[in-house]
Amino acid sequence: MNALTKPANATDARRAARSHILTPRLETPFHPRLAALDEVNDWYNWAGYKAPHALFDEELEYFAIRSTAALFDISPMVKYRIAGADAERYLNRLTLRDVRKLPVGRVHYTAWCDDDGHVLDDGTLFRLGEQEFRLCCQERHLSWLLDSAFGFTVEIHEETEAIAGVALQGPTSYAVLAEAGFAGVERLKPFDIATFAHDGGTVTISRTGFTGDLGYELFVPRQTALSLWDRLWTAGDGHGIRAIGYAALNRTRIEAGFIVANADFVTAEGALRADRVRLPDEIGLDWLVDPDKPNFNGRRAVLDARRNQTLRHVLVGLEIEGNVPAEHAIVYHRGKREAGLVTAAIWSPTAKRNIAIASLTRPYGTRFVDDLWVEIYAMRELKYQKMMKRAKIVPRPFVKLARRTATPPGLR
Amino acid sequence: MTSSDAPLKTPKTAAHSYDAIVIGAGHNGLAAAAKLGRSGRRVLVLEAANAPGGAARGREFAPGFRSAGLAHLVNRLDPEVARDLGIALAATPGPAMPTAVLDGEREPAVLRGAYGETIDGVTADEAAAFSRLRDKLVFQAGVLKRFLRRPPPQLGAIGIGDISTLMAAGFGIIRKGRAEGRDFLRMLLMNVADVADEYLDDDRLKGLLAFDATLGIHLGPRSPTSLLGLYYRLTGEVDGKAGGQFIPEGGMAAVAPAFLKAAETAGVTIRCGARVGRILADRGRAGGVVLADGSELTAPVVVSAIHPQATFLQLVDAAETGTGFLRSIRHVRSAGNVAKLDLALERMPNFSGLPGRDHAGRIVIARSMTHVENAFNPAKYGEFSPDPVMEIVLPSLADSTLAPDGACTLSALVQYAPYKLKAGWETGKPAFLKIVIDILERHAPGIGATVVAANLSTPTDIETEYNLPGGHWHHGELQADQLLINRPTGTASGYATPIEGLYLASAGAHPGGGISGLAGWNAARHILAGGSR
């Protein structure tokens, strides 16, 4: 409806106000390009957006990340702009890590908790200026962020729709950027941010990603999303660039040992069952907690749990014998005592190992680390083939690539 | 004791370091300070105003006429607190202070003794019915009373003391047999109107119960749980009798000095005119305060005997508390509903049909339950009552220094007068004052012509005068959702707060408002017992 024409009556006005129900899945700014490249029509719902699970072949898409360059649309990622005189102090109270130690032009991975120390989400915090930040995460938190703003001079805007994001990952990703004319991008070290001219405006490029590989994430206003895509696509022509879906990305993030909210742990605001919430130390995020920095949400609860030894879970990396992925398998101690659950598992083509991320109930995984088994049910033509496989706790990441951190990065 | 000329930017020396700092010299702050001081601790009380007393602080509201503050009678001073701290506030020997209920038509119904042990002006049957109801309510209030003198049980950390209190309450309920126990559980969350209808016929008595159950609470008599307010009233006692009331010898102006003396006797230092600007806290641990003039005072224990919202929304850096905690503090319902009227009169008024000596009692204008309910209705929509109900006391009868010779002061608590008046109190106040004076004129003909000065304090005025967010003298609604383990909010309900070393001790903490001294005394005892959360 034309915004200038008044609705004829109240009923029309109501209908107009809820026109969003006609498009239950939003399309991202890159959707026209994704739709054109799509061969398998395998879409899923990512935070209300239509996102590709795969575009042509999950296996080949995976190898695009590990062997050439892959473009992955991250626009549905929830993004908040946080700015103001108290922005640093505000974020320091909100999140676990010390934001005072995050210089302008840097990104850090962090997480935030409720008052009880239960993790609300994890994400990346971009320091775009002295008083200007972007927080990227999985779930929506506007009401929590706004309520947290009481007593601080800070402005918070949700910019998920306004900002398009695309991850360019893989060994030739730097070559693609260089070819596309982003001069100086070679100086970016991991977690650095810089802005470059693009299509009459700017593009923010950070050397970040979710693959454990050499890679970058690029953010632009949604109006210049397609021109950015085309610029990368053209430049990537000789560098094996491919557009990929989430299935391939998920494999690489498991290899890198990264966790995903509401896959490897349940977020505190999303959990329906009281025992599903997790303290940072229970999902492998203990290293983010900084007891020396000023007070932050959940500080007392986390430190009390450490002191009183009431932590109940632990997140571990597992290497499992055989080659059948153990997704959502139950972990046993000595083959009979239930010890936990596998939250993510794949056969890793790069590590050539059967790997998994698992949540164990302490003392399994802390005091009892040996004699662990996973029970895999493989459906084989309408019959479960039950396998009890030996599992070994191993450090994450499962795959460590020198090119991820090499600066300047290689061209191939 | 008063000094507003505090030195600037003081260094950290012994002179600026205490064992405990109490913020606010209201009666709860002084009670907490006295209790702490008696344990040998060095205690400092900081009061923003130029005199101690908090809401019991007197002021001159017209030349030659003084008001003793917000409260105009005492009905719940805890005897254990008074004994422990040596607070000598007692009624003048003689008959108990009566309550007269005026409906403007019949002769007043006058309740004598403690909450109507005998009643004048009603039939013998009605008096007997009231007595049965009164006995039942006093018994039931007695069951609840045992919870008032100790911190509320902390979920997840229930101690032996909590269990014994709960068991004692359980035995208390069935002490009079199963039927009484069942009746208690039936009535606990009822509304006062239905209960009164079960027992009474006389509209004046029902009106009184409705008024007493809802005074200072945003409920009408027909609102669910409104009986709780009456229970709360009846947990108060005077001379061992539930429901009593009195004005101490020397008048209400004697209240603040009595608490002050208890604190000073305990060796407490009290500084008035010393407004706290900030409570110092670092990584979840309180360490003292910074005064508005910038000087810093340190103490490992900071007791905030002011409104919980004033404490956490004004004095504590938001970064030092959690988002969830602050959210719950901001959601504490604390919009006052009562206006306080102080009248300066040329001479003593004469309320129609009221015997002369009963003018020294409490006078309630409430025709019926419906009158109170109708008075409440507009308050739900941000309007004041066009036909309000009120409680009147003539303070100068007990304390002749309040008014010039021959003249008189009148104090009235008038409801409903919602804090958030839709039309705004600037225009609302004169209109509401006129309504109140007109009502007084109806019940005490000629009073209007003798008014020398009238001072109406709306909830917004009370908020400003006493630094009480919402102008609510209970420091937060006294309703089921803000009692016990939820007063003022879950994680701060046991006097300790999420900030180690910072304690709450005002009416906003358990058990609530009224001059009982319990919140401050309980808080201090909790601190002395280790003060854990």
TrEMBL record, chain A:
One Gene Ontology biological process: methylation
Domain (GCVT N-terminal) ranges: 39-292
Binding site for substrate: 217
GO molecular function: aminomethyltransferase activity; methyltransferase activity
Gene3D superfamilies: Probable tRNA modification gtpase trme, domain 1
E.C. designation(s): 2.1.2.10
Cited Pfam families: GCV_T, GCV_T_C
UniProt keywords, alphabetically: Methyltransferase, Transferase
Keyword Isomerase attributed: no
Cleavable signal peptide: none
Keyword Glycoprotein: no
Domain Aminomethyltransferase C-terminal, first and last residues per copy: 315-400
InterPro entries, per the entry: GcvT/YgfZ/DmdA, GcvT/YgfZ_C, GcvT_C, GCVT_N, TrmE/GcvT-like
Listed PANTHER family: AMINOMETHYLTRANSFERASE, AMINOMETHYLTRANSFERASE, MITOCHONDRIAL
Protein name (record): Aminomethyltransferase
Species per Swiss-Prot/TrEMBL record: Mycoplana azooxidifex
Automatic annotation (TrEMBL), chain B:
Any Pfam family matching the protein: Amino_oxidase
Molecular-function GO terms, alphabetical: oxidoreductase activity
Domain named Amine oxidase: residues: 213-349
Alphabetized InterPro entries for the sequence: Amino_oxidase (IPR002937), FAD/NAD-bd_sf (IPR036188)
Coiled coil (UniProt feature): none
Oligomer status and interactors: Interacts with COX5B; this interaction may contribute to localize PYROXD2 to the inner face of the inner mitochondrial membrane.
Its job: Probable oxidoreductase that may play a role as regulator of mitochondrial function.
Protein name: Pyridine nucleotide-disulfide oxidoreductase domain-containing protein 2
Organism: Mycoplana azooxidifex
